[in-house]
Amino acid sequence: MERRLVGAAGLAYHELVVRSLRSGGVNAHLVLDPLRLGASLPQAWWLLRRLRPDVIFTTGGYLGIPLVLAGRARGVPSLLWEGNVVAGRATAAVGRWADRVAVSFPPALATFGDRGFVSGTPIRSFAGVDRPAARARFDVADADRLLLAFGGSQAVARMTAALDGALAELLADWRVLHIAGEAGMTDAQAVRDRLPAELRDRYRPVSFLGEEMAEALVAADLVLGRAGSSTCAEVTAVGVASILVPYPYAGAHQHENAAWLADQGATVLVPDAELDAPRLLVELRNLRDDAARKRIADAARALGRPRAADEIAAELIRMGSAA
Q1: Chain-centre distance for alpha carbon 97
Q2: Which burial class, exposed, middle or buried, applies to 199 when counting CB atoms under 10 A from its CB (0-12, 13-18, 19+)?
Q3: In the chain, N or C terminus with fewer CB closer than 10 Å?
Q4: Are residues 143 and 190 in the same domain?
Q5: What is the CATH number of the domain that holds 285?
Q6: CA neighbor of 302 nearest in space, from 269, 261, 270
Q7: Tell me: the pLDDT tens digits for 220-265?
Q8: 175 and 293: one domain?
Q9: Angstrom distance (rounded) from CA 308 to CA 314
Q10: pTM of the predicted protein model
Q11: What is the pLDDT of residue 155?
Q12: What residues have CB less than 8 Å from 135, skipping those under 6 apart?
């Protein structure tokens, strides 16, 4: 994916032999991964010698270790960005060697000390997105309430199942735009087909939204989604009420993200194991009230940092100029 995206942007792409640690169990990678990491250190050193960068930007993880270490050896400053409340072990290690650390959530500063600053999460721009026009694009009338449901590939099955059991009742109060993913479209379309004919146009499943995603978020009255860094950043940047259902794996990072927002009154947290049709209906009944949603939306907006990318870029320029 990285090779394709970087190449499409017209940028040079360089790949280290180190790989992300995602294999489970006992296998050959237990031996090969340390060897790959060792081989990546001189590879990164020579790459920096050839490119002569003024500064390094990394999102951490196992892949950031050789590059940041090589940067320290060559006197190249580095900036790490951490998007979660709780950093993973490899990212925390990279943070010990990085010169500066940008974080999305204030509690993450405790991991990185005085080298850290709160930048927020780089996200798409919502500048110029008009809410009435966005709602018209999705056929949402002024009097309608729009629920935007999305959650990435891991969330499709559970979210679709919860919606399936709840739609016949909730569609009386809500229109639903459901981003089901390509893998989830067959199930989502089957859910729509089972609805009474008079309700089908109030439930719209789509596989993916590209540039329209900004409009969907601005048009929404409520978001149902996971609690990754980008989702948390976008609901706060837009200032929209949300029900966040953290992905329960990957070190439970998303739970801490959602819990921090919930503690600020900026979202409603529903644990993954509790997301079913009855629980979804309870939460939607509670948030049918415009004033209740506004309280959450206002709290979310107060936490938003829509210029995070600019803040990180400015710090990188400062670091590179001082090097």
Answers
A1: 25
A2: middle
A3: N
A4: yes
A5: 3.40.50.2000
A6: 261
A7: 999 999 999 999 999 999 999 999 999 887 658 899 999 999 999 9
A8: yes
A9: 10
A10: 0.89
A11: 47
A12: 141, 142, 144, 146, 219
